[in-house]
């Protein structure tokens, strides 16, 4: 698995995560934004070292449900383009791309991830995996497209972050997460 931690720029990271696994760019236009420049609610939703599952639950007050839109897999690398919804609503509260080095996770954790029934953060918490979330870059989406469209036609802007989840001190999971200011 080519490692996100070896890349030097947001541009390279977005190209690596949003285009390479699926053959088409899921993000076409964006602007880098320093963490300290993010306004609310985006600062609360993105600038932290917690699982998005927990942050989104606290913000929206509803359980977070996973929906996998696309997935690819090689021997040890599993990549998926996902949306998260709030509870039983159909309101999308996050879109994301997750690239997982399956070789760095135990069999039960791998299986539950592959089953795609629960958000990744919930699985890692439930299995008590030693983890550390490391955001690297933040950005604002500039136009509609596969990462913004699922939020609905009323959403004109969204912000995201790119980073890692270290599992047992290894950068096992690479993330690109996008949120919009939506109400459920």
Record keyword descriptors for this entry.
single chain; 7-stranded antiparallel sheet; 5 helices; globular; Chorismate lyase
Description:
This protein is of the alpha+beta class. It has a single domain (4-179), classed as Chorismate lyase-like (Chorismate lyase, 3-Layer(aba) Sandwich). It is 21% helix and 34% strand. The chain contains five helices and seven strands; from the N terminus they run αβααβββααβββ. A seven-stranded antiparallel β-sheet has the order 1-5-6-7-4-3-2. A hairpin with a 3-residue loop joins β2 and β3 (77-86). The chain is globular. The model has no long low-confidence stretch (mean pLDDT 90).
CATH class: Alpha Beta
Order of helices and strands: HEHHEEEHHEEE
Q: What fold name goes in the CATH topology slot?
A: Chorismate lyase
Taking pLDDT < 50 over at least 5 consecutive residues as the criterion, the unreliable ranges are none
N- and C-termini, Cα separation: 37 Å
Number of helices: 5
CATH homologous superfamily grouping:
Chorismate lyase-like
Give the total of beta strands: 7
Strand order of the largest sheet: 1-5-6-7-4-3-2
Instruction: Name the beta content range.
Output: 25-35%
**Largest beta-sheet characterization:** 7 strands, antiparallel
Based on CA atoms alone, the radius of gyration comes out at: 15 Å
Helix content: 10-25%
Please state the structural category: alpha+beta
Give the number of domains. 1
Mean pLDDT: 90
Summarize the structure.
With 184 residues, the chain is an alpha+beta fold.
Topology diagram in text:
Blueprint: H1 10-18, E1 30-32, H2 42-46, H3 52-60, E2 64-73, E3 77-86, E4 92-101, H4 107-115, H5 120-126, E5 131-141, E6 159-167, E7 170-179
Antiparallel strand pairs: 1-5, 2-3, 3-4, 4-7, 5-6, 6-7
